Amino acid sequence: MKLCFASNNEHKLTEIRQLVGNQYEVLSLKDIGCVEELPEEQDTLEGNSYQKAEYVWRNFRVSCFADDTGLEVKALDGAPGVYSARYAGPARNNRSNMELLLKNLEGKSDRSAQFRTSITLILNGQVEQFDGIVTGKITEAPAGDKGFGYDPIFTPEGHEQTFAQMSSEAKNRISHRGRAMEQLVNYLKSQKF
User: Fold this and answer.
1) How far from each other are the two terminal CA atoms of the chain, in whole angstroms?
2) Active-site residue, 151 included
3) Which one of 46, 68, 108, 179 has the largest count of C-beta atoms within 10 Å of its C-beta?
C-alpha cells in the first residue's frame, strides 16, 4: 500500500521509512508532485498536522499522514512548543534554535522537557490522530552529531546520551515520533484493504 508522508524533510522521511519498514511504500511530497510549502498556521501540534494532511488529501487525493512535533520545556512554560522549528526566526535554523533555547534556560534549575509528536492520518477520507511523547531534560551544551533539530540537547529519561548521540535504531525505539508511528502502524495493520 502507498501512503504519502506530508513532509519535505529528508531526515524525517528516512526516520519514518525505518519505522514503517517495508509493509508500506512511503511516498514523499515530491513523489506525488507536491512542490509547494504546506500550510502550518494553527496554534497546536494537532491542528498543524491535520492542516497539512488535509491539504494533501484535498489537493492530490492521496491517502497520507502528516506530523507536527514540538519540544515543550517546563521552565519556559511549554515553549518553544508548536513554534519549535521557527523558535529563533523564520529561517528554521537548528543551531540558532538550540542556542536561543539554551540562552533562555540560563540560570534555571529545572531543565525538564518533553518532545511531543501529533500525527494525522487521512486514509481514504477517514481521519485518525495519534500522539507520542518522550520525557527528558535539556543538556547544558550540545552533544552528538546524529539526528536533527533539538536532538543534540535532549537527553531522554533513563538515558545518559542525547538523541544525537544514539543510533537511529535506538532513538526510534523510544522517540516521540516512534511512539506515535507505532500507533499509526498498528492502526494500519488493523484495517482491511
Assistant:
1) 9
2) no
3) 68
Catalytic residue among 68, 77, 110, 145: 68
116-135, pLDDT tens digit by residue? Answer: 999 999 999 999 999 999 99
23-37, 38-52, 64-78: least confidently modelled range: 23-37
Cell numbers describing residue 47: 491542528
Q: 94: which residues sit within 8 A by CB, 6+ positions away?
A: 148, 149, 150
Sign of the alpha-carbon dihedral angle for 113, 116, 12, 51: negative
Cα–Cα distance between 152 and 162 in angstroms, integer?
Answer: 6
* Residue 52 near residue 66, CB atoms below 8 Å: yes
When the pLDDT of each residue in the chain is averaged and rounded to a whole number, the result is 92
- Report pTM: 0.87
Structural domains in the chain, CATH included, are: 2-190 (3.90.950.10)
| CB of 119 closer than 8 Å to CB of 180 | yes
